[in-house]
What does this fold into?
Amino acid sequence: MKSRSLILPAALASALLLAACDKEAVKPKGESAEKSETANSGSTLNIPGLKDEKAQSSYVVGMTLGKQMAEIKGELDIDTVVRGLKDELAGGAKKVTDEQAQEIMAGFMERMQAKMMAEQMAAARKNSEEGQKFMEENAKKEGVKTTASGLQYQVLEEGKGARPTGNDAVKVKYTGTLLDGTVFDSTDKNGGEPAILPLDRVIPGWAEGLRLMPVGSKYKLWIPGNLGYGEQVPPGAPFPPNATLVFEVELVEIVKAPK
It folds into this structure.
């Protein structure tokens, strides 16, 4: 679920940062430092309706504000937002005092938080129900085993080494997918090197699954939401609340747990 921010960052700083990043991203290959410096100092792009540098910069600041407010635009009257912006920049009398503004914003944030929580809980229920149906069918497949906790696993390759215990740390290679096959994380995405993970710092489904595996094994794990990240997923997580997650895991080595 995409995280939402209810407190807008500094608009101008964000605009300048975005503009700088965009310039770097679209700069032609082979462009000399001298040409780049000249282009960035006082040049004006040919954009219809935005004739000079001030107009173009102003428009980009407006775009940046729009991006920041995109998640909550349905809760706002844009014309009134513009009125408030103009009144604030004009520096004269405003329709609300600073004290009233704080009270109104606090109420707005409280309403938005409640709405977001309700949406998240509804999504969590839906994903839990869909995940449960999937797990019921998956349990019938050949080679799939279900533990008492509800974790499901399939042995792809059985190793001959020791099994991790307690709070051991392990070196693993893995690929994580959603039920639709979308890859959301993998060691290949993170440089290809095995990851070192202490068993007491991973989700319950991982900890249980890894303790079943001898070193050298490759298992496929199906982790229901209650053994994964549950209803409260990390901000910006590439999966929704209560998602059933699928991992192919290779246990490379048991290592000394990092301090």
In short: DSSP finds six helices and seven strands in the chain. The longest helix spans residues 98-138.
